[in-house]
Specification:
6 helices; seven-stranded antiparallel β-sheet; alpha+beta; globular
């Protein structure tokens, strides 16, 4: 197979000794007047127009195609079976392209509204080759930086410092026809510390060291970010005050973490646009290969590109991270952990970058949905985080804003803190401060405590708010009840046979 040679990057971990926090200037993006039919914030549209080199009519077509593409791809993947050769958006985003190994089946693809492209290798064959490289990852050494399937090129891409290193790796894995990209040290992937889609935070590493990173996306009880920013148990701060604790972190293998914040912090479904405003986050539908991806970072502001490949394995100087997504958006140190969006859909958190935003660069991100799944978190979006107001006009509250496992819930005067924020998650749980509402010991008896507990999704943590205002645990078929009709702050919650009393009525607010 013909091999093309490009320049890449040696993979480095950034260290974070902090004696002073460097100041960065953010490149300005001129915000046009919103197009009459544009659903995008003006700043986000401006960044897409600049970095994708498309005007609004072209972007509107792209966004429409991107919205329909996941369903089209899933349908054609199932229909074509072994002949499916992958799917991607055309370079201009105007249509979904579907690879097929059987030229006789192109009409099926056209009938589904996509453009067919006959390819040599099936998606399954490419995935098998990529899996073989993963299985022989130890043979990569430090000169091989990453590998992934590029469906548009119908190839497995191996990125390395030099050709002998790449060929030795592919030979050890038994992969004969991978496409090799040669990249120099100035283009290596590396974790980039700092930032999310806006808000800087610090992780206390101990012994006087801190990591400066960024919030990725708000989740119930905290936020997600990159795993290389810190380890479980380390404390965090933001805006000069205590913020929370890293509850779980993984790096290498994956690059994911979540931080549980204290009651002084309130989760918002937005990303900082670095122009004095925010962009709303409305969901986490994954974009197709070729789709737009815009990154918000503390150092370089809004930067946009397209998705180049998924399930990317990156070698950070001997530390392997799997399952990343590669993009053509640039990033620099300080952008680590930051938000990747496609439109208003959350995509992932910045993991690493090659090159820079001056001479040209690339980046990889950890997809957000695996983070949510791994840590049983609920993404905060407009309308799914509420107060639960009930008896005496008071709110369901986590006592003291301290989400200790097994702490009995109470009512308290509504005060707008995160101790009174509740998210109705898709798995049927009701979540607050990174924990779940729970019936103690899974009891079905009248008088069983309603408490806050680590999320497991078991039947004791399933609650339904009915149209009648009853907050019911289906396992017990009983209502969340204010004990003894006590209207004072601190009155405890229990389950009790539903009787229609005002001490069992709740409403989202």
């Amino acid at each position: 197979m013909k091999r093309a040679f490009v320049t890449l990057a040696a993979v480095m971990l950034a260290t974070c000794t902090v004696t002073a926090v460097p100041a960065f200037t953010h490149p300005a993006v001129a915000a046009p007047d919103p197009a009459p039919d544009s659903p995008l914030p003006a700043e986000l549209r401006a960044a897409m127009e600049r970095d994708l080199d498309q005007d609004w009519p072209e972007l509107r077509t792209r966004l429409n195609v991107e919205a329909a593409a996941p369903a089209q791809e899933a349908k054609l993947r199932a229909r074509l079976g072994p002949a499916f050769g992958g799917a991607w958006l055309a370079e201009d985003g105007s249509t979904l392209v579907v690879g097929v190994t059987d030229a006789g089946r192109t009409d099926e693809i056209r009938a589904a509204g996509a453009r067919p492209q006959v390819v040599e290798r099936s998606a399954a064959a490419l995935d098998t080759a990529k899996a073989a490289l993963d299985q022989h990852a130890k043979a990569a050494g430090t000169a091989v930086h990453g590998w992934f399937v590029n469906p548009a090129r119908n190839e497995v891409i191996v990125q390395a410092d030099d050709r002998p290193a790449a060929e030795a790796f592919t030979k050890a894995a038994g992969v004969k026809d991978a496409h090799v990209e040669l990249r120099g040290a100035d283009m290596a992937y590396r974790p980039v510390y700092d930032t999310r889609g806006g808000d800087e935070f610090h992780v206390n590493l101990g012994n006087g060291y801190i990591a400066i990173c960024s919030v990725g996306f708000a989740v119930s009880g905290g936020f997600v970010t990159a795993g290389h920013c810190g380890s479980a148990g380390q404390s965090t701060s933001g805006a000069g005050v205590d913020q929370g604790t890293v509850r779980a972190s993984q790096f290498p293998g994956a690059d994911m973490a979540w931080v549980q914040v204290n009651s002084s912090w309130k989760a918002r479904p937005v990303v900082n646009n670095h122009s004095g405003g925010t962009v709303q986050v409305t969901g986490s539908q994954e974009v197709s290969v070729g789709g737009s991806a815009c990154r918000s970072g503390r150092t370089t502001g809004w930067r946009c590109g397209t998705v180049q490949g998924k399930n990317v394995t990156v070698n950070y100087n001997g530390q392997l991270v799997h399952g990343l997504t590669a993009t053509s958006a640039c990033a620099e140190p300080g952008d680590s952990g930051g938000s990747f969006l496609s439109g208003t859909q959350a995509q992932g958190v910045t993991s690493g970058a090659g090159g820079n935003c001056s001479s040209g660069g690339t980046s990889v991100y950890q997809p957000v949905n695996p983070i949510l799944s791994a840590y049983r978190l609920a993404l905060v979006t407009p309308g799914n985080t509420n107060r639960l107001v009930g008896y005496a006009g008071k709110c369901i509250d986590v006592p003291g804003g301290n989400p200790a496992d097994g702490s009995q819930l109470q009512i308290h005067t509504c005060n707008g803190t995160s101790a009174q924020d509740w998210t109705f998650a898709p798995d049927g749980t009701v979540r607050g401060m990174g924990m779940c509402m729970d019936v103690a010991w899974g009891s079905t008896a009248d008088g069983a405590n309603v408490q806050i507990a680590n999320c497991s999704g078991n039947p004791a943590q399933q609650f339904v708010l009915s149209g009648a205002g009853d907050l019911v645990n289906p396992q017990a078929n009983k209502c969340v009840d204010v004990k003894d009709w006590n209207s004072a702050d601190g009155a405890k919650l229990q389950i009790w046979t539903c009787g229609g009393g005002s001490n069992q009525k709740w409403a989202r607010s």
